[in-house]
């Protein structure tokens, strides 16, 4: 007994692929403009860094005889880095910067989160005036208050000491308070009420419930504030005139004195200053992007 298999009739041609929508000239021009802008922005950012990196590997004779885009004769020339690190007192500058950065960021997180907790969870007279004062302080340019700020710092007896920049970095960060305030408004008040019924006081609620829930805001403040303090030049230069108190930015600026004609050594100092921030950013970039995005949509 034989069986007959009936196959569907085909014309012998492959099934037709879905037709693509023809790209218009406007879409192609828009995409080309986007790529061109990205390439230009990358060049503007990377070319100065590449020039400085190549200059840091050149000898003095190479730097004076060759152009800025000429590569160094040897890519393994640590002499400029050794001179910049030892003669420029970079180790001491890194230590001073680390002390100021850690204390200032810790103080900013504690004070900023406490102020935001008090404003969001307590109802008191003049609450609107306090918020308005914070907004007004954020809008006033810092340069216009420098004379009064300098007199206050001098009266407190902290001029030419690390306490001066620590106090200024910790006590004037209105932006951090607003970041904590925006995150805290998303924490339900039911948690406070439940903790109160369990016998917790206000400080216990803040320390054991509110502060752990503010981890995304803390990460955002630590990264933004840390980068700002690391790059700050004006406040350390004005309030810490002693060379023993030099931080990264002021120590790099003072390279113009002993190394005024040795730009290859100055370039090596710039590379030494850039490397820590580059490494920290690569390690924490996920936290940075998440924190900035979360803070933007709340």
UniProtKB/TrEMBL annotation:
Pfam families cross-referenced by the UniProt entry: BPD_transp_1
Keyword terms, alphabetized: Cell membrane, Membrane, Transmembrane, Transmembrane helix, Transport
Predominant place of localization: membrane
TM region(s), chain numbering: 35-57, 98-119, 131-150, 162-184, 205-230, 265-284
The ABC transmembrane type-1 domain, residue ranges: 94-284
PANTHER family found in the cross-reference section: ABC TRANSPORTER PERMEASE PROTEIN MG189-RELATED-RELATED, LACTOSE TRANSPORT SYSTEM PERMEASE PROTEIN LACG
The protein, known as: Carbohydrate ABC transporter membrane protein 2 (CUT1 family)
Organism of derivation: Pseudonocardia cypriaca
């Amino acid at each position: 007994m034989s069986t007959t298999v009936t196959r569907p009739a085909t014309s012998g041609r492959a099934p037709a692929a879905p037709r693509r929508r023809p790209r218009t000239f406007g879409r192609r021009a828009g995409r080309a403009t986007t790529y061109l802008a990205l390439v230009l922005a990358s060049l503007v950012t990377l070319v100065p860094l590449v020039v400085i990196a190549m200059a840091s590997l050149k000898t003095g004779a190479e730097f004076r005889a060759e152009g800025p885009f000429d590569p160094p004769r040897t890519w393994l020339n640590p002499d400029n880095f050794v001179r910049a690190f030892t003669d420029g007192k970079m180790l001491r500058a890194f230590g001073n910067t680390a002390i100021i950065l850690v204390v200032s960021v810790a103080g900013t997180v504690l004070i900023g989160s406490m102020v935001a907790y008090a404003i969001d969870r307590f109802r008191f007279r003049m609450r609107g005036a306090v918020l308005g004062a914070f907004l007004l302080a954020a809008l006033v340019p810092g340069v216009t208050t420098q004379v009064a700020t300098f007199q206050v710092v001098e009266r407190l007896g902290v001029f030419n000491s690390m306490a001066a920049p620590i106090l200024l970095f910790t006590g004037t960060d209105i932006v951090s308070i607003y970041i904590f305030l925006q995150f805290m408004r998303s924490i339900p008040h039911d948690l406070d009420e439940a903790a109160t019924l369990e016998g917790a006081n206000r400080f216990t609620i803040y320390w054991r419930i509110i502060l752990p829930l503010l981890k995304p805001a803390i990460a955002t403040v630590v990264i933004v504030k840390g980068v700002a303090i690391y790059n700050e030049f004006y406040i350390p230069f004005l309030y810490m005139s002693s060379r023993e108190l030099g931080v990264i930015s002021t120590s790099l600026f003072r390279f113009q004195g002993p190394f005024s004609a040795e730009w290859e050594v100055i370039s090596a100092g710039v590379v030494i200053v850039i490397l820590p921030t580059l490494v920290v950013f690569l390690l924490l970039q996920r936290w940075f992007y998440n924190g900035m995005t979360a803070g933007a949509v709340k």
